[in-house]
Amino acid sequence: MGEVIVKYKVMLESDSMGRIDDVCKDIDSIDKEIGAIQFVEKKPLAFGLMFIEVTAIIQDGEEFNNPLGNFEDLVKSFEGVTEIETLEMGRL
Fold it and tell me: When comparing pLDDT for 56 and 92, which is higher?
């Protein structure tokens, strides 16, 4: 069993920008069994749009059934989230 550190770019619908703080709180409250959130930060993208940069430590190994996919699916399920993109990934 190992751990993977992953940095994600989370995009919201343009009309959901007013909820960006709520989505940040939702992401920050993810159950530690799914992924330990290290950082959640709002960053400017362009023309007043923002994205959320998330750094998480996720358990990896044969005993875990697609841990990265489970984490990404959970983040996509939050209201207003349209896309999640992996920016960086490495083993710990």
Answer: 56
